[in-house]
Amino acid sequence: MSMSGTLYLIPCSLGEQNETSHMQSWQPLAVRAQIQKLQYFVVENAKTARAFLKACEHPQALVSLQFIEIPKHETPDTASVMALLQEGINVGVLSEAGCPGVADPGAVFVAAAHLAHIPVKPLVGPSALLLALMASGMNGQGFAFHGYLPIPDKDRFNKLKILEQTSRNTGSTQLFIETPFRNHALLLTLLSGLAADTRLAIACDLTLPSEWICVKTIAQWRKEAPPDLHKRPAVFLLDARKI
Predict the structure, then answer these.
(1) Rounded to whole angstroms, how far apart are CA atoms 76 and 130?
(2) Minimal CA–CA distance to 54: which of 3, 12, 109?
(3) Can you tell me the distance from the alpha carbon of 200 to that of 206, in angstroms, rounded to the nearest whole number?
């Protein structure tokens, strides 16, 4: 019986920074060496994937690499990827930013690989969620990530009040994100809806030259003009524990 290939999970840069010099600041040499051996990649966008692989100094011509794009509004075709793996071909799953499978459509391929008894290998790289949690000083023993919050103002407000109460009752840190162009609207809802003593952390542009991390109570945030977060990738964390 032939050996199956391995599904490699490849962390990508956080933000639009795919120069080789930037990659070298966070990407382990062993990870780069493994990426350079792969020819097949499952990606969200082939163009940005090529830019990432170019920065990884992939030794093969980029036009010779095979990219399987994940459709945005259709069920991903996991069967064709599983067929490659079952033929003994290694495949890499590449996120648009950060770690595949975490707030990322790549998770469906990982689940399919486990069902098919195909080895899955996560590679080391940046996770905006963990970096933000590390830098927040909030509870790292108990936390929950909620992805994107509801868009309508009333629904978003109600969801934030639920997360705040959950944090107050359990002591857990609550993490969430937003599409960058909606960051300002989310921040205004946070400042208007949460209790004055609730702590809010914002971690923006992580690992990039413009990285900015700030933690304050809601009362302290309200005393200053809101930061400009427009179109900047950010992670929001709240901690409503009484300290």
Answers:
(1) 27
(2) 12
(3) 17
pTM over 0.85: yes
3-state secondary structure of 218: helix
**Mean pLDDT, the chain, whole residue set:** 94
Query: What digits encode the pLDDT tens for the residues 122-156?
Result: 999 999 999 999 999 999 999 999 999 999 999 99
What the chain holds in terms of domains, given with CATH numbers, is: 7-122 (3.40.1010.10), 128-239 (3.30.950.10)
DSSP letters, 110-125, are HHHHHHTT--EEEPP-
| Cβ atoms of residues 136 and 201 within 8 Å | yes
* Pick from 42, 31, 88: nearest CA to 65: 42
Question: Phi-psi bin for 147: left (phi > 0), alpha (psi -120 to 50), beta?
Answer: left
Of 237, 234, 239, nearest to 198 by C-alpha is 239
DSSP state of 77: -
Q: Which residues pair with 203 in a beta bridge?
A: 213, 235
Alpha-carbon span 119 to 154, nearest angstrom = 44
Output the furthest CA–CA distance in the chain (Å, rounded): 67
